[in-house]
Amino acid sequence: MDSKGWVELGTGIGTILVGVATIVAIIRGPIIALRIQRTLDEEREVRNRKIEVFKTLMSARPTRMSPTFVHALNMIDLEFTDALGFCRDKEVRVEKG
Description:
Layout: H1 3-59, H2 67-79
């Protein structure tokens, strides 16, 4: 095979590879985008719940025995520890029953 034949063969293989890569990107792109969006939404939801607990505690400070304040105190352990029971802000292990 002469050099022109090798060039044409390489061009053909390159075109096929680009086509396959394009098809893979068309299929996988939206799936990856949805996973990223779901992760971002979950992180935003966790942050919003923490902020809501903090706002509730700050707004109910004058009435420390109110049900709202006590509920917010009880939510601290749930919202500020991860699934393994570690507080992210401190290196403290929280016992989960």
